[in-house]
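Figure 2 data, in text form.
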Amino acid sequence: METILLIEDTGDILVNLIEYLEIKGYTVIAASNGKQGIEMAEENRPDIIICDVLMTDMNGYEVLRSLKESPKTSKIPFIFTTSLSEKMEIAEAYKLGANGYLIKPFDLEALLNMIRTQLEKK
């Protein structure tokens, strides 16, 4: 069973995504901030990471930069979820190495399709 690491600081969104992805058959581990997410990624080496961009302690871009610098986590597929819809923000995400970018509110099926696509590429 594939493991997904969710990094999201909004409690309701985190709980809803965990429930949805577990129903779809994934093992889900969750972090409520960027620092915790980086630690969990290094400890657990998930199959894929889904991360919010706008978080209080460190933003998603900083999380991705940090994970890309570590040999343990640099190859893990990474999907951003965010309310930021500016082309510049999206371009920055892909420039840093993101594998996907979903604008909130997003369709859960779209997220699921993106996850499946990235896991098949691995």
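Caption note: The longest helix spans residues 108-121.
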